[in-house]
Amino acid sequence: MTRLTAAAKSTLTPLVIAGVTAASALVGLPAGAAPTPAEIHVGDGVVHSTKGISNIVIKDCDENVTKIEFRDEIHSYTLPAGVEYVWVKSGNNKSGDGPGYGEMHYVGDCDPYDS
């Protein structure tokens, strides 16, 4: 991997996407450094992540499970109505709940009086 010199870095125009500058993305992590985990927030029916979301697994109020894989990683996704749980695969996170299942979040968008 080619590392940028200090002079080359100073000529870059900062490009910020989800808190990562282009310069830091090009340089990479120092040897032995652990990658920063994705920060995931689920609220108001939207999933946000500081790292690209590669897939989402949704469990709806009727216990149906749907896995959505994204060709291009995205940083936010609007959930459909009626979601009880969502697993967000972003970065190197795992829940152990199944292949491709990332970090689990309780959404609770279920009507307890709906039967």
- Radius of gyration equals 18 Å
Give average pLDDT, whole number: 76
Largest sheet: 5 strands, antiparallel
Decide which structural class fits the backbone: mainly beta
Principal-axes geometry comes out as: globular
Distance between the termini: 58 Å
Overall tally of domains: 2
Number of helices: 2
Total beta strand runs: 7
Task: Catalogue the unreliable spans.
Answer: 8-27
Helix content: under 10%
Share in β-strands = 35-45%
Q: Which H/E pattern describes the elements? A: HEEHEEEEE
In short:
This protein has 115 residues and is mostly beta strands.
Describe how the helices and strands are arranged.
Elements: H1 6-10, E1 16-17, E2 20-21, H2 22-27, E3 40-43, E4 46-60, E5 65-78, E6 83-90, E7 103-106
Antiparallel strand pairs: 1-2, 3-4, 4-5, 4-6, 6-7
